[in-house]
Amino acid sequence: MARCSLYRYQCSQYGPESTLKKKKKKTGGAGYLASFLIKTLLSRGYTVHATLRNLGDSTKVGLLKGLPGGETNLKLFEADIYRADEFVPAIHGCQVVLHLATPLLHSHQSSKYKNTSEAAVDGVRSIVDACIRSGTVKKLIYTATVMAAAPLSHEDVTSFKDSMDETCWTPSNFPTPYHHVDLFAKYTQSKIAAEKEVLSYNGRGIQVVSLVCGLVGGCETLQSVISESVGLIVSQVARDKNRYEMLRFLEELLSKVPLVHIQDVTAAHVFCIENSDINGRFLCANHYLKSIKIASYYQQHSPLITIPQEFIEDSMRETKWGSRKLEEAGFEYKYDYKMILSGSLECAKKLCNLLN
Q1: Which structural domains are found in the chain, ordered by start?
Q2: 72, 179, 258, 267: most buried by Cβ count inside 10 Å?
Q3: What's the pLDDT tens digit per position in 190-212?
Q4: Model-level pTM greater than 0.85?
Q5: Angle, CA of 262, 263 and 269, to the nearest 5°
């Protein structure tokens, strides 16, 4: 099987202390999606290179090395986005590189970059250049976010297009109705800039795929803490105002909330690895819901759930999901929105004692 390099840049959890998880964590190769991808790739016989910011973190190293095949087919490297040349050894000898996420909190330890957007874009350049120079890497898969694909009109950023698809790009002057989630807005700006940068390399000595992922949910996780994306999905049930306003930020930005199951996101990455003709930009989500529908589903399917009215708002928008590009390329989603929502709730019950 091919050799893959997979890494996730540092990304602190954000927001004040909340109902579900009060302790801030930093995520790397041991993050929610990254760890699940590593497990899947190892199970399929791949040799995987993965990076962590600190190889002295025995919890994260133990999590990854403890995966089936981890001792033999997983090699860990220490790397930091603010020292992008550190990723070169992890890329060496690989055929495919999976580049997940971007820095959320700006590190002021280095004066090289003034913000996370500069760091993310320079990181993309360094990584793509290292891929091309390696002589072995054929494809780079960038895990993007739907936050960079808002169906807002560029002429009038207060109005929405009729549908959301791969042609949508979030305008640089997008509105931010929730001012205390300014960090979310800065994260969006950095993801827009990084995705545009990485796509500009497609066909220039390397194939580039951008998987623009929706809000990821489901009950499967290798972590002992709830992921931020699952926290947003169950925020109405948890009565978590901070995360609920982040959910509403997504809805205000995207008209509705695109959802995708962790298993489907993982399968989409593998699909892009194993299909040599796949390149370009693909939205990766199979449901597009209003937050009011998410609340309604939970209240209808669990007698224990009562959601206060302050967590139920109707955007009154009817923008449609207009993307089938990934499916037209041959990919098949296996998990519907009921599985995503119920799985996320089960995860919150298990890890956060929600409703217990």
Answers
A1: 3-352 (3.40.50.720)
A2: 258
A3: 899 999 999 999 999 999 999 99
A4: yes
A5: 90
